[in-house]
Each structure stands twice: as structure tokens, then as C-alpha cells.
């Protein structure tokens, strides 16, 4: 039986995933890698987009067909695995949310001159207001779409003002002069790692988009999420490349703000404030919603009071930032943790895709399974290396 197509829900899930990915770290990553790789960063973006899409389709399809959240699927694969994965996701989500709240504060500071702490509190209040509404899911969908489109529009404007060498960027996207595999892994982890890839998949499940009949809708929603995140990445890359190609120096203390200011003057700096705030507040919402969705499998009370638990999650993130400040070591470990979470969760979903007690008579595409298996191996090796280096640096 074919499901009715709900374009608002499909776009909402896609934008929720995309705006969850496009946070303060995403903006900084893109500008830093553009400065180091130049036009060849286009190849890194292209490679990461293809991998992101493969990872996302593997995970979203299994969630839809199993008609269960990731922790329940993991427990069906191996008892207790769901609890372990949920612990990693919630811990990583909380740590990243502290950074997201701080990023939103920085955006409001650039835009209207508020202190970072006051901006963080205002951000928390706005995010909480969404979950006080009766139909919070629909409001969240619309808000994610609005903020996503706003970010794309502003970054396209800044990209044009920086006058990037588009021809060289296009050439080096397919014929790079240097390739940085660690940059590819970093981009993949930042776009579909940790809680991010599950944000849209769980949103579709909550909205009733599930079952084999819904796979076409799931695929289009996943593709829309990757497309939005990729558009932001591509145009931010072009804006940064325009600045770098002119020989201008990007400020290492705040790379994305520097790009916006150098490309479009003081107006550009104000626009950076809008983009940073938009990126951060949508990441706050996506992180809180998805982290709590992992807890719903373990307690009926969490399901019953879901919005209240989400609000508590946002409040906790904000209070930690405001009272303690940005816990650098925790955020460093959380970044490395993100690299670990992806191969664990992706491997779990690949096993689930071939378990009849989970997916019934569903046949998972072989090409997607092979791509997923390769990503599990590569991410496991590289994330272990990065994580070991981060641990060593903390105790050096």
C-alpha cells in the first residue's frame, strides 16, 4: 500500500538533518580546510558528499523498514548494544550542544552586540519555546527549513562578493593537486557522524513515514538533507576560496567570521552573525531532539514527557556553558567520539539489514551495503588513530 506523500514532513526531516550538521564546527572546518587545500578542497567535498549519501541511505532505509528507532534495532542485533550506542549518542550530543549554545552566543554577539552568555541564554529560550508548542514537530520542521534557506541565501551572497575562481574550483574538484583523506573523514564525521544522521531518520519514524512502501520518500528526504548541507558547504568553500585566492589572511581565532568580513566588510560580519546563530540554534534543536529520541526506547516516561525532557536537555547544555564555560577537553573528546560512533552504528545497521527478524523480507541494495562496509573499516581505523592522538594530547 502506497503511503500518502507529506512533502512538509519529508523536507522537514531532511532539513533537520542538514541543519543539525551545519553547526559552528561545520563552518570552521570548511574555512580551515579551504585555506590549507585551496581549490583542491572541492574534491574533498565531492568525495564526502558521495560517502554521506551512502551512509545516510543505509541507516535511514533500515530504520524505515524495521519501523524501529536505532536503539531498538541495535538491541535486536545484540542485547545491550542499544544501551551502549544510546550512551555514546547522548554523551556526544550533550557535549556538542554545549558548543552549539556557545556558537549561537557568538553569532548574536556579532549581530547585535550581546555578551556570549546572554546570547546563549536567549538561544536556549527560543529553542525551548519551540518545544512548548503543542505540535512541536511541525514547528521544528518549519523552523529548520526557514533557517536552512536563510543560511544558503546569505552564504551565496558572500560567495559572490568574494569573487572566487570558479573555473579552477570546478577543475580541481575532479583533478585535485593534493588529496587529504583525513579531511574527507572529518567532513563525513561532521555531516553524518554521531547523532546527526539519526535526526532525520527518527523524525520520519515519529511522523509515520515507515515501511517498505515509504522507501521512495525516505530516499528523497535523505537526499534533500545531504543536498542542503552540501550547498552550504560548497558556497562557503567558494566564499573562503575567493578570500584565499586574493592573498588575504584568514584570522585563525575565528576563521568563518574572518571570511565573511574580508569578503563583504562590516555587512559581511553582521551576516556572519546571522549564519552562525542560525547554524547553532538549529543544531541545538537537532541535537536535543535526537539525543532524547534515543532515550525513548528505555522509558515510557521519556516518551510521555518527550518535550519536557528535550527542554531539560537544552537547559542543562546552556547551564554548563554559562556557569563553567566552554569545556575544551570535553569538546575535543566529543569530536573524536563522533568518529567512533559512526562505524559502530553503521555496522549495526548493516547487520540489521540482513536479519529477517528485524527487516522481514526486505532486500537491502548490495551497492549500498558494500559502500557502508568500506566506510565502517576506514572510519574505524582513522577514528581510532585520531582518538588516540587526542587522548595523548590531553595528558601530554
Primary descriptors:
396 residues; mainly alpha; globular; Divalent metal cation transporter; NRAMP_fam; transmembrane helix; cadmium ion transmembrane transporter activity; transmembrane
Give structural notes:
GO terms for molecular function: cadmium ion transmembrane transporter activity; manganese ion transmembrane transporter activity. The structure is a single chain. The chain contains 17 helices and no strands. The chain is mainly α. It starts with 6 loop residues before the first helix and ends with a helix.
Overall mean confidence score, pLDDT: 85
Distance between the termini: 60 Å
Secondary-structure element order, as H and E?
HHHHHHHHHHHHHHHHH
Percent of residues in helical segments? over 70%
What share of residues are in beta strands? under 5%
Helical stretch tally: 17
Number of strand segments = 0
Low-confidence stretches: none
Summarize the structure.
The chain is an all-alpha fold.
SSE inventory with pairings:
Layout: H1 7-21, H2 24-37, H3 41-66, H4 70-77, H5 81-112, H6 116-132, H7 136-161, H8 166-174, H9 181-192, H10 196-206, H11 215-245, H12 255-295, H13 300-304, H14 306-324, H15 328-352, H16 356-359, H17 366-394
Helix pairs in contact: 1-7, 1-10, 1-11, 1-12, 2-9, 2-11, 2-12, 3-8, 3-9, 3-10, 3-11, 3-15, 3-17, 4-5, 4-15, 5-6, 5-12, 5-14, 5-15, 6-12, 6-14, 7-11, 7-12, 10-12, 11-12, 12-14, 15-17
Amino acid at each position: 500500500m502506497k503511503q500518502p506523500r507529506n512533502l512538509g514532513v519529508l523536507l522537514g526531516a531532511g532539513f533537520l538533518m542538514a541543519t543539525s550538521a551545519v553547526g559552528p564546527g561545520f563552518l570552521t572546518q570548511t574555512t580551515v580546510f579551504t585555506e590549507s587545500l585551496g581549490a583542491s578542497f572541492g574534491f574533498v567535498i565531492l568525495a564526502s558528499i558521495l560517502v554521506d549519501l551512502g551512509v545516510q541511505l543505509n541507516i535511514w532505509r533500515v530504520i524505515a523498514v524495521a519501523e524501529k528507532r536505532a536503539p531498538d534495532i541495535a538491541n535486536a542485533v545484540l542485547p545491550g548494544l542499544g544501551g551502549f550506542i544510546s550512551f555514546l549518542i547522548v554523551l556526544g550530543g550533550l557535549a556538542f550542544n554545549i558548543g552549539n549554545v556557545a556558537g549561537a552566543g557568538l553569532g548574536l554577539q556579532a549581530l547585535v552586540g550581546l555578551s556570549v552568555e546572554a546570547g546563549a541564554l536567549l538561544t536556549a529560550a527560543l529553542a525551548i519555546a519551540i518545544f512548548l508548542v503543542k505540535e512541536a514537530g511541525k514547528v521544528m520542521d518549519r523552523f529548520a527549513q526557514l533557517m536552512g534557506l536563510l543560511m544558503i541565501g546569505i552564504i551565496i551572497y558572500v560567495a559572490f562578493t568574494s569573487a572566487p575562481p570558479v573555473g579552477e574550483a570546478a577543475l580541481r574538484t575532479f583533478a585535485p593537486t593534493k588529496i587529504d583523506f583525513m579531511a574527507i573523514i572529518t567532513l563525513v564525521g561532521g555531516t553524518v557522524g554521531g547523532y546527526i544522521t539519526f535526526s532525520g531518520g527518527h523524525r520520519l519514524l515519529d511522523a509515520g513515514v515507515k515501511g517498505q512502501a515509504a522507501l521512495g520518500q525516505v530516499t528523497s528526504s535523505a537526499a534533500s538533507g545531504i543536498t542542503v548541507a552540501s550547498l552550504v558547504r560548497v558556497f562557503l568553500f567558494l566564499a573562503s576560496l575567493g578570500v584565499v585566492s586574493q592573498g588575504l589572511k584568514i584570522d585563525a581565532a575565528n576563521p568563518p567570521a574572518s571570511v565573511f568580513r574580508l569578503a563583504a566588510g562590516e555587512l559581511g560580519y553582521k551576516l556572519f552573525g546571522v549564519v552562525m546563530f542560525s547554524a547553532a540554534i538549529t543544531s541545538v534543536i537537532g541535537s536535543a531532539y535526537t539525543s532524547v529520541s534515543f532515550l525513548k526506547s528505555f522509558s515510557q516516561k521519556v516518551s510521555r514527557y518527550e518535550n519536557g525532557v528535550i527542554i531539560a536537555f537544552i537547559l542543562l547544555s546552556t547551564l554548563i556553558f554559562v556557569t563553567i564555560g566552554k569545556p575544551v577537553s570535553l569538546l575535543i573528546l566529543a569530536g573524536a567520539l563522533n568518529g567512533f560512533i559512526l562505524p559502530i552504528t553503521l555496522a549495526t545497521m548493516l547487520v540489521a539489514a540482513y536479519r529477517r527478524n528485524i527487516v522481514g523480507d526486505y532486500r537491502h541494495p548490495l551497492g549500498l551495503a558494500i559502500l557502508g562496509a568500506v566506510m565502517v573499516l576506514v572510519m574505524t581505523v582513522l577514528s581510532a588513530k585520531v582518538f588516540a592522538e587526542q587522548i595523548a594530547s590531553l595528558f601530554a
